[in-house]
Specification:
263 residues, Rossmann fold, alpha/beta, 10 helices, 8 strands, eight-stranded mixed beta sheet
Length: 263
């Protein structure tokens, strides 16, 4: 792991390979380890960087009142510190929302956007009843005694998690900070970045698991219809964490797209 200091926070990140910059932004209740197949599989072609967002992994705890803008500013500070020019910026789930906010605030740092099974915020992408149900479920989870706290939500995979991933997923879940998750879920529930989508002026890759139950293909269609320059790749046999469930297919899609859109 490497570290930078930004806005009073320590931000940790992992880096592999050489070439055009590809930055990976993980989802809620995750950290940079969720990108292991991409760090390994794409390092021959790119400088691959996966951060631990503030409040996750080896990065600092979230300050009080930290919001979506704070995540975006921290990510911008990391991109600036790398000093490798505009990045291919990939976000999965909540990480895609962070990537969109970074683009809103600092578009000059972004060469392309790669949206993987993501949202324009829950409010921006999901029906109101679904958002209410998710918030209620999150509150119930967070109210559980510490020994029973389990941040794993259903629907992350098309079926059962691949057996080889179970130890990794358990390690990541064990390191989730409840205070971070509580603050993050509140931000996600209220986020609506749909106004930004028609104004995105960089090529955008949409990578979606065919069987994603968390952010279904209807959300991908919303992105495809709103963003001027999009390429949609549907990953067969994959759910919400398509990068883990079908890593070769996701890596192939990302590699081809980034090669076709050199910064």
């Amino acid at each position: 792991m490497e570290f930078i200091e930004a806005g009073g926070l320590t931000i940790a990140y992992e880096r592999a390979g050489e070439g055009p910059l590809l930055v990976l932004v993980h989802g809620a209740a995750d950290d940079s380890r969720i990108w292991q197949p991409q760090l390994a599989g794409l390092a021959e072609d790119f400088t691959v960087v996966a951060w631990d967002e503030p409040g996750a992994g080896r990065s600092s705890d979230l300050p009080e009142g930290f919001g979506l803008a704070g995540y975006a500013d921290g990510l911008a500070a990391l991109l600036e510190s790398l000093d490798l020019g505009p990045a291919h910026l990939a976000g999965i789930s909540w990480g895609g929302t962070v990537a969109l906010e970074l683009y809103r605030r600092r578009p000059e740092l972004v060469a392309t956007l790669i949206m993987i099974d993501t949202y324009a915020g829950w409010k921006g992408s999901l029906p109101t009843d679904e958002v209410r149900a998710r918030v209620a479920g999150a509150r119930e989870m967070l109210a559980a005694p510490p020994a029973q706290f389990d941040p794993t939500v259903p629907g992350l995979f098309a079926g059962d998690p691949p057996a080889e991933l179970v130890p990794l997923l358990a390690e990541i879940a064990a390191d989730v900070r409840p205070a971070t998750l509580a603050q993050q879920l509140g931000i996600m529930a209220e986020a609506d970045l749909t106004d930004l989508l028609p104004r995105i002026a960089v090529p955008t890759l949409l990578v979606w698991g065919r069987l994603d139950a968390r952010s279904p293909l209807t959300v991908a269609s919303q992105f495809e219809n709103a963003i001027p320059d999009t390429t949609l790749v549907v990953i067969e046999g994959a759910g919400h964490l398509s990068n883990l469930e079908r890593p070769e297919l996701v890596n192939d899609a990302v590699r081809a797209f980034c090669r076709a859109h050199t910064p």
